[in-house]
Amino acid sequence: MDKDIVEQNNEIISVGELNRSAKYLLESNFPAVSVIGEISNLARPASGHIYFSLKDDEGSIQCAMFKGSNMGLNFNPKDGDECIVSGNISLFVQRGNYQLIAKKMILAGQGNLMQEFEKLKSKLKDEGLFDDANKLPIPEAPKHVAVITSTSTAALQDILSTIERRAPSMKISVSPATVQGENASETIIEAFKRIQNYNNNSSDKIDCVLLCRGGGSIEDLWCFNNEDLAREIFNFEIPIISGVGHEIDFTIADFVSDLRAPTPTAAAEIVSEFNFNLIEKLSEISKDLVSSIKNILRDKNQTLDYQSSHLKHPAHAIREQYRVLTSAYEKI
Question: What is the pLDDT of residues 110-168, one digit of tens each?
Fold first, then answer.
């Protein structure tokens, strides 16, 4: 019976060939997938990669998220988390088991928020709110900067300390706002209106605004994805630098602002760059000037020492003249 089966096959292939063929079929038919399930058996070896199973009531699949991808996670995955994992299906030829190579992963509850985010992003982009042509230039050397953030956050302290260190003469005003929660976007809009009202009634104009907060989950940063806030930023008459979250975090406010900084500290560094470079240049000039003066004084001292060594002491000169006179007198 077995012999008949073998004889009926036109070709006999190796295990490796079979697995490679299966790998090709999987990768060509599933170029990219998003799968929802519960994390189990999560492991984090020293390599920095993450290995886990994604399961539901009907089955499970092995997943691997390599270090370069998991560095972009905005949460710490653990067993029991329900997640949406996006990536590519592949097959490990040596063992014959297939797995999902994860490129992105979010908590399942964030899925609806991401859909809302992409929908609003697409809408505003089509209206031209993200176009570079509509962005205001950031002043090279702002004298008066306003900061919109919560007064209780570490982000504000980072901004203040950075500017104080790099541009101590720069004036800073804080227009406080709530940067997380249900009504946060409304308080941010009010903060912008206060700044505009100040400029309309003051000669000491604010010439740049920093909109900042520290990192957090998509829910924490959601107030920066508000359409009314986006339109307020777009219509604002003063240049705005956004510094919301970490480098991997992007919000609608980032896209509409005149310039995006990856962090609040980076925003402070951008706005103080000219002053910082000027101070550094003046410091270099001062050091060069002091060095030049020291060199001149050293050379003059050396010249003085040399000339002094060739001068006769006055007493010696008197004695010499006395000797000449005495000799002349004796000859008379």
Answer: 777 888 999 999 999 999 999 999 999 999 999 999 999 999 888 999 999 999 999 99
CA 285 to CA 287: how far, in whole Å?
Answer: 5
C-alpha dist (Å) from residue 30 to 2, 91, 101? 35, 12, 12
Q: What distance in Å separates the CA atoms of residue 129 and residue 249, rounded to the nearest whole number? A: 19
Q: What residues have CB less than 8 Å from 35, skipping those under 6 apart?
A: 54, 61, 84, 85, 86, 100
Crossing angle of helices 154-166 and 264-271, rounded to 10°: 20
Contact call for residues 61 and 99 (beta carbons, < 8 A): yes
The 259-260 sheet, strands edge to edge: 171-174, 144-148, 208-213, 240-244, 259-260
Contacts of 229 (CB under 8 A, 6+ apart): 185, 188, 189, 223, 252, 253
Phi and psi at residue 228, in whole multiples of 5°? -60, -40
Q: How far apart, in whole angstroms, are the C-alpha atoms of residue 237 and residue 192?
A: 10
Looking at domain 19-108, which CATH architecture does it have? Beta Barrel (2.40)
Residue 137 DSSP label: P
pTM for the structure as a whole: 0.62
- Give the residue carrying structure tokens 């040596």: 94
Cross-strand bridge partners of residue 100: 63, 89
| Domain positions in the chain | 19-108, 137-276
The span from the CA of 198 to the CA of 212, in Å, is 20
For the segment(s) 137-276, the CATH number from 3.40.1400.10, 3.40.50.261, 3.40.50.920, 3.40.50.360 is 3.40.50.261
Q: What is the pLDDT of residues 295-314, one digit of tens each?
A: 787 777 777 776 666 665 66
User: Measured between alpha carbons, how far is residue 213 from residues 38, 152, 223, 246 in Å?
Assistant: 31, 11, 11, 9
Q: How far apart are CA 190 and CA 148, in angstroms?
A: 10
The torsion angles phi and psi of 80, rounded to 5 degrees, stand at 100, -15
